[in-house]
Each structure stands twice: as structure tokens, then as C-alpha cells.
Amino acid sequence: MKRTLIMSVVTLVSGVALAIPDAPADYLAKKNPVDGNKEAIAKGAKLYEKRCQKCHGEKGDGQGKSAKDLNPEVTAFNKPGYLKGRKDGQLYWIIEQGSPKTDMDSFGPGTNYNHSADDIWAMIAYMRSKFTK
Ligand code: HEC
Question: Which of helix, strand or coil describes residue 23?
């Protein structure tokens, strides 16, 4: 009994450490105001190429040239069902805030990259248009 309990705690803790954290509810409620918008997609493509491609890859497969050996590994957006299963606000939150203790930096206002909400939504529009499978 005691052993089962310890084992479940270990599984729980390691599971949590590996998973990308869930965005808070107010973020999860957000919808991309420029989803599918052509100009936003074009702008997002440039930003993605400059800031994200080296890890997330040109094809969104998580195999960019700087992605090798990163742990936890870089998220592949083009995995079947992946982007369909992620809410806009979840993607937004991680891009804005980063994922603590991983190589996923924060890119939002006030960071070194200082990307506005418009920039972040443009990147999400691009990623969805290009990598959704
Ligand atoms: C230095 C490598 C690196 C760069 C550059 C990078 N990322 Fe990431 N990204 C990661 C890693 C590693 C993870 C996985 C984090 C985790 O497991 O918690 C990740 C995860 C994500 C996720 C997953 C969020 C989710 O909930 O599914 C999104 C979205 C994302 N990155 C977007 C971006 C965008 C947009 C850019 C460019 C502005 C970018 N990343 C730049 C390494 C990178």
C-alpha cells in the first residue's frame, strides 16, 4: 500500500515536470483576433523565421538547427492533432511567458525580445496556417 502510494507520487511528479504547463483560465479564454488573416500570417512568417525556426524548424517539426539535444525536447507543431488540440490562449501564454526551466524563452512585452500582443497573434496565425495537421 505504502509502496503503491510512493510509486504514484513519483509518477505524478515526473509527469508534471515533463508536461508543458497549462495556461491560466483567463488566457485559455482568449481567441486569436487575426486567425486566418493574410497580412498577419505574412508578418508572423517573418517573425517565426527570425525568432523560432532555429528550434521549432522550418516545417514546425521541432528539428531546427539549435534543437539538437535540448531537454525537454522542442515541441513539434506538425504532429497530427497537436495544434488542433491546443487553444489559442495556451500557445499565446507560453510564447509570452516562456516555459520555466526549459529552453522555451519568454518573448512578450518587457522581455529581451519585447514582442507585442499583435506580434504574438501573428506568429500563432502563421503557425496554425502552416503546421496544422
Ligand atoms: C531555444 C529554442 C527555442 C526557441 C528559439 C523557441 N522555442 Fe518554443 N519551445 C522550445 C521548447 C524546448 C519547448 C518545450 C517546452 C516544454 O516542454 O515545457 C517549446 C514550446 C513551445 C510551445 C508549446 C506551447 C504549448 O502549450 O503547446 C510554443 C507554442 C512555442 N514553443 C512557440 C515558440 C515561438 C512562437 C517561438 C518564437 C517566438 C519559439 N517557441 C522559440 C524551444 C524553443
Answer: coil
- C-alpha–C-alpha distance, residues 117 and 106, integer Å: 13
- Exposed / middle / buried, residue 130 (Cβ in 10 Å: 0-12, 13-18, 19+): middle
- Residue ranges around ligand 1 (CB below 6 Å): 20, 51-52, 54-56, 66, 70, 72, 74-75, 86, 90-91, 94-95, 99, 102-104, 107, 123
In order of 94, 114, 121, the CA distances from 110 in angstroms are: 15, 5, 17
pTM of the predicted protein model? 0.90
Question: Grid coordinates 499565446 are at which residue?
Answer: 92
Tell me which DSSP letter residue 58 carries: T
The single residue listed with the C-alpha cell 528550434 is 55
User: Is residue 30 a contact partner of residue 91, using CB atoms and an 8 Å limit?
Assistant: no
Range(s) of the domain holding residue 58: 25-131
Which CATH number covers residue 55? 1.10.760.10
Q: How far is the CA of 6 from the centre of ligand 1 (A)?
A: 32
Number of structural domains (the chain) is 1
Per-residue pLDDT tens over the stretch 81-107: 999 999 999 999 999 999 999 999 999
